[in-house]
Amino acid sequence: MKIIIRTLSGKWRKKINTDKSPNPEYTLQLLQLLSDNSYDIVFQKKLTSEGIVTIIFSSSLIEKMTLQAVVLAPLSHSLHQIHQIAERMQYNQISEIENKINAGYTILYFHETKQYLALDTYSAPIRAITNTEIESTVIGPQDAFTESLETNISLIRRRIHNHYLKNESIYIGNNKQYQVSIMYVDNIVNKKLLKKLKKRLQHINPPPLLDTAVLKQLIEDNPFSPFPQYYMSVRPDTIAHYLLDGRMALLINNSQTVIICPTSFFEMFTSIEDYYNRWTTATLLRSLRFFGFFITIMITPMYISTLTFHPEILPYELLLNLQESRSKVPFPPLIEVLFIELIIEVLREAGSRMPAKVGQTIGIVGGIVIGTAAVEAGLISNILIVLVATSALLSFLPPIFLMSNTSRLVRYFFIIAAGLFGLFGQMLAFAWLITHLLRIRSLGEPYMVPLIPRKWTDLLNSVVRFPMAYLKNRMGISKSQKS
Amino acid sequence: MNIRLLLIFLLLFVAGCSEQGKKIPIEEIDMIGIMAFDYVDEKIKKLTVAIPQYSKEAEKDTMVYSVETDLVSQGIVKIEAQSDRKVVLNQLRVILVSEEFARKGHVRSIVEHIYRNAEVGNKALIAVVKGRADSILYAEYPDKPNINFYLNDLLRPSFNTAFNPNTNVHDFIYATTNLTKDASVPYLELLDDKVEITNIALFKEDVMVETISPNESVYIQALLGKKSIAPLVIEMPKDTKISLNLVKSKFKIESNKDKHQPKLTIHIQMKATLSEYNIEHLDKLNTWKEISHLEKSINRQVEKDIKAFIERLNKQQIDPIGLSEYFRKYTYGKWTRAMTDKVLSKLELDVNVKTIIVNVGTLK
Amino acid sequence: MRLTQKKVLTKVHVLFLVQSCLIGTGILQIPQKLSAMGYSQAFMPLFFALIATINLWPMLWLNSKFPNNNLFQINEILLGKTIGKFINFLLIILFTIVCIDAISSYMLLIQSTALPEQTITFPIICFLALLIYLVRGGIFTIARFSIMAFFITLPMVLLTKWAIQKGEFSHFFPLFNFTLQEFYEASKNGYLSFLGYELILFYYPYIIQQKSAFKYATIGIWISGVLMLITTGVSVMYFSEWQLSNIEYAVLNIFKAGEYSFIERIDIIGMTLWIFLVYSTVALYLWAANEGFKTLILPKSQIHLYILVISIFIMLILPISKYLKMKIFTINNYIFYLLLLWPIFLILIYLFRKKQVHQ
Q1: Domain end: A217, A233, A265, which one?
Q2: Do the chains contact at A312 and B29, CB–CB below 8 Å?
Q3: Is residue A170 part of a domain?
Q4: In a shared domain, residues A94 and A158
Q5: Which of the pair, A275 or C177, is modelled with greater confidence?
Q6: Which end of chain C has less Cβ packing within 10 Å, N or C?
Q7: Residue A465 domain-assigned?
Q8: Does the pLDDT value for residue A387 go beyond 60?
Q9: Chain A contacts of C130, Cβ < 8 Å?
Q10: How many domains are contained in chain A?
Q11: Lowest mean pLDDT among A201-215, A359-373, C77-91
Q12: Do residues A296 and A407 both lie within one domain?
């Protein structure tokens, strides 16, 4: 019997299922054995008007007050209430009973009548809805998703009062052990895409699915690409916006972020705040983010290529300055740039890993001590510091953090390409980038929209965001149903 | 997918093997800013170059090298032997040639060599120097930062040097190879511790033949389409002098389309503010009547000036303005230089100037 | 071969495929190629566009009779297996040489402007690696790349601003000042820069709205025609006749005229950015050669592309004298003129063998 308890997964579980428990009493014993080493599974015997009742529950998932109100109080004086609301369980479905316990139900076993009843008492402590720290905006609603699936769904449903808003739940994995919730608006969403998404979900076998970020990587079209192919957000208003545009949202329990698919490259640079701002401001910010991406991957490579290959590009005066500041530097420009870029990267990583109070100092240490000292020591030229700092700042512009990581990674390709062939190398890398982006697909839909629009109306909501009155049409990438 | 990984590895592998070390970073190169050519004999020329020195330890801010050579590129190689770094032409800004060199007709060949070199931009400006060209590079300019910047700024277009044709490499090649146009180039003189554009040198095909004064050159520039030709100083008879500011000029040239009896009518309109005047019997310009009188006398004078000056050039069959173009564009068949010369020698001119003084200042 | 090919190209794709395949390395040299006509070359691109539009018509008529086959398959159907395969083999060689021509002339330009004093073997390897990546994406990716290439490189038109300011408008006159001999000479050399639209014979089966293909292909041709008109027009204004016939890459020198206070040499940026235009042209030719190669042997394998690219690479780095190369390219180009007339020949055969074919 102890073997069953230690290896709860796989074959043994099936064995119990097929092994019909001969009688209800035996089931109780089995349950006791199964929860042998977990002290939060509580077995209590109570004397009621219908004889002895064993109540089984997981104390970590249930609050005392709930237990009191739903189970203990009715047990003592109004048993009929329990019979009315409780779910009847078969004594031989042991694994089902066990799942109920793990899901926060309370199981009641009436010794007299040999009945198993289940009561939903799930009331695990959850985090309250708080402000978003990842995608904060100045204007607009401030609530963010929490780690509770039900809260998240409720946050979305509050925004879409529509009976077409569907919330399908499917179980994935080899043993169907993970629940994924697909949300979509039924009369808008493209049914083919929905089918494709479901098919893709059913064919994956995830390692421990701790967050949607893991799920996202498993259902991406091109897993080798450095680019994120689905939008991820913790903001319910963003998700509602995309749902109403005809996209699908994927949620799992215990994960704060929600996946939106399909998504285009350009949407990685849009923030829901663009719709709250006036269109002029929104356009300015969008173009900053979008062109900032291309500037950040070009700016330091440009330094290398002008210094090693094309000094004729720069004005004379600037060139002499550069010559002077470079004259003490012992490395070739390529190494110089790689060196300082890696330092910035280390600073960023160190800053994000450190406890918040220490983290503040790292900026000062990194910025002033390393930067100034390195210039004075003659390790790097001061002009490069300016360029690297600018490109580092620009790389943090995209509202999707994964995209900002990507922009930093892609920059290294460009740096190496510039080190090899100067501007020609940069353009070669740029052509690679474009080709790569053109070849990526997001849920089978071309990623490079609306730079190459699927519909002409997409252009109204691209880098230039037109006034709200013009944004009547849904985006082409959602291929939404005609309504 | 494997192929892709293989390709990446291949690229990295080849990248490792490539001749990376050969590329020379910026601090290891000497960028020639000025080249000066002097005449030695028919084949050999003296090449002098100025290279800015960025090192703070060096006493002088410019390095000057001088070699005698027959080919330009060979001269550069010889200079490299003297310099401690690699010498490149990427940032060439100024090409100076001595008057003798220009008059013997050698400018075209060296400019063509530089024009062929894709590394050199179009920014290299050409100037003719009175006397020896290298003397400008060897001279000391105590109050100027660096000869390279000094000469470049001097020759570049600026507000008060409308007469300067700013001839760069492309312009020079364009004008000398154009059948209906001749090149004009600023003419420099070294005066003690500064350089001055004293005249404008005119070329006929490859050979420098004539110099004209800045005042005359202004009209060339106006007729070439320069909009602003300020400041304009007009000398009138009886010791009268007028200086106009902010001159906006417009011109129109009408041709009679007959290359056998060529005749051109030139209309020039100038809008200007009067900045200074020196007229006898007249302390102040009080009324608009007086001003309009002045406008008329300016018109007459400028008409006379332009006509005399262009006719002088026509006698020598030099065409810096491209007047013969106004006949070429109506002629079918091939145009030749001989036709240009013929047109110029026969050309009849009619000049119409209209001056409008829009402002005389705030003093009554 | 697949009979039910996936139709992926929309009309916009067709427009830009035609448009960007016309603009490759040819446009860089077009003023020099047309220099036999002196200043009168300015309006030649419009004439070329007209010829191309007329020439496009028989091509599309032939294609409309075989909506699901490309020219390689049409050759085999109309001329029989053996002759058809032989012709296809020639076409593949023809296209491969076009690729070599374009790549080598672009690489020479890059070597003289952006990478002086460097061997170009390694840049060529990188160029070809990316070319494989692009062509493997199929016609759909190439079409989308063409759109991107057009919009990325279009701002370069603005870089002609300085040359226009300096240029002399009077060079355009007198209009039509040329002899027939000069006209023949210029069109013979210049029309080669206007090739590329004939590839519609090969991607026609992928077009969704085949009926409107002619309209959009024509728009593509005329956009390119206008861009070339700008090139020749600006060249005529900016250069003297001597310069027109002696400057190999007129566009390079036009870009050299420009300057900003912070970037003094726009030409290098322009020439390196030109890589997009070269890619959109070369990729399409290589794709066509690859499709044809597949009809010859091993239709399911992926190896054809690699064989083609490796042979291009070998041809590029082989120490052949430039003279011999030029000779090969010239002969190749004259054969290309035959290809333009080929559809008319096929149409004649089609009309003779109509019944047989439909059985």
Answers
A1: A265
A2: no
A3: yes
A4: no
A5: A275
A6: C
A7: no
A8: yes
A9: 428, 431-432, 435
A10: 3
A11: A359-373
A12: yes
Whether residues A385 and A353 fall in one domain? yes
Interface test with A, best of C16, C148, C262 (most A CBs within 10 A): C148
Smallest Cβ–Cβ distance between A326 and the set B15, B26, B56 belongs to: B26
Among chain B, residues having any CB pair with chain C shorter than 8 Å are: 7, 10-11, 14-15, 18-19, 22-23, 118-119, 121-123, 170-171, 173-175, 177-179, 181, 322, 325-326, 328-333
Q: Which residues of C touch A298 (CB under 8 A)?
A: none
- C77 CA to chain B: closest CA distance, Å? 35
Does B33 touch chain A if contact means CB atoms closer than 8 Å? yes
Tell me if A424 and C273 make a contact (CB, 8 A cut-off): no
Say if A353 falls within a structural domain.
yes
Band of pLDDT at residue A6, cut at 50, 70 and 90 = very low
Q: B170–C253: do the CB atoms touch at under 8 Å?
A: yes
A328, A433: one domain? yes
The answer, yes or no, to whether residue C3 has pLDDT greater than 50, is: no
| Nearest-Cα residue of chain C relative to residue A319 | C262
Chain B CB contacts of C265 below 8 Å: 121
CB contact under 8 A, A424 and C279: no
Q: Is residue A409 part of a domain?
A: yes
For chain B, list the contacting chains (3+ Cβ pairs, <8 Å): A, C
Q: How many CB pairs under 8 A join A and B?
A: 58
Residues 87-106 of B with CB under 8 A from A: 88, 90-91, 93
pLDDT of B16 reads: 55
End-of-domain residue from the set A241, A265, A289: A265
Q: What is the mean pLDDT of residues C278-300?
A: 90
**In this structure, are A291 and A424 located in the same domain?**
yes
The mean pLDDT value of chain A amounts to: 85
Q: Is the pLDDT of residue C254 over 80?
A: yes
CATH code: domain C11-357 is: 1.20.1740.10
> Which of A313, A423, A428 is facing C130, going by the closest CB pair?
A428
- Shared domain check, A185 and A80: no
Do both A185 and A317 map to the same domain? no
* Contact between chains at A309 and C114 (C-beta distance less than 8 A): yes
Contact B31 A324 (CB under 8 A): no
In this structure, are A322 and A433 located in the same domain? yes
Nearest chain A CA: its distance from B255 CA (Å):
43
Per-residue pLDDT of chain B (364 residues), as tens digits, is 556 666 666 666 655 555 554 577 788 888 888 999 999 888 889 999 998 887 777 778 888 999 998 888 888 888 988 888 888 888 888 999 999 999 988 888 899 989 888 888 887 899 999 988 888 888 888 888 788 888 888 888 877 778 888 888 999 999 999 888 899 999 999 888 888 888 999 998 888 988 888 888 888 888 888 877 767 888 877 777 888 877 788 888 888 888 888 888 989 888 888 877 776 666 666 677 888 888 888 888 888 888 888 888 888 888 888 888 888 888 888 888 888 888 888 888 888 988 888 877 666 5
ipTM, 2 dp: 0.92
Record: contact B177-C265, CB cut-off 8 A = no
Secondary structure in 3-state letters for chain A:
CHHHHHCCCCHHHHHHHHCCCCCHHHHHHHHHHHCCCCCCEEEEEEEECCEEEEEEEECCCCCHHHHHHHHHHHHHHCHHHHHHHCEEECCCCHHHHHHHHHCCEEEEEECCCCEEEEEECCCCCCCCCCECCCCCCCCCCCECCCCCHHHHHHHHHCCCCCCCEEEEEEEECCCCCEEEEEEEECCCCCHHHHHHHHHHHHCCCCCCCCCHHHHHHHCCCCCCCCCCCCEEECCHHHHHHHHHHCCEEEEECCCCCEEEECCCCHHHHCCCHHHHCCHHHHHHHHHHHHHHHHHHHHHHHHHHHHHHCCHHHCCHHHHHHHHHHHCCCCCCHHHHHHHHHHHHHHHHHHHHHCCHHHHHHHHHHHHHHHHHHHHHCCCCCHHHHHHHHHHHHHHCCCCCHHHHHHHHHHHHHHHHHHHHHHHHHHHHHHHHHHHHHHHCEECCEECCCCCCCCCHHHHHECCCECCHHHCCCCCHHHCCCCC
What is the structure's pLDDT at A297? 92
Query: Which residues in C lie closer than 8 A to residue B173 (C-beta atoms)?
Result: 240, 243
Q: Is the pLDDT of residue A3 over 60?
A: no
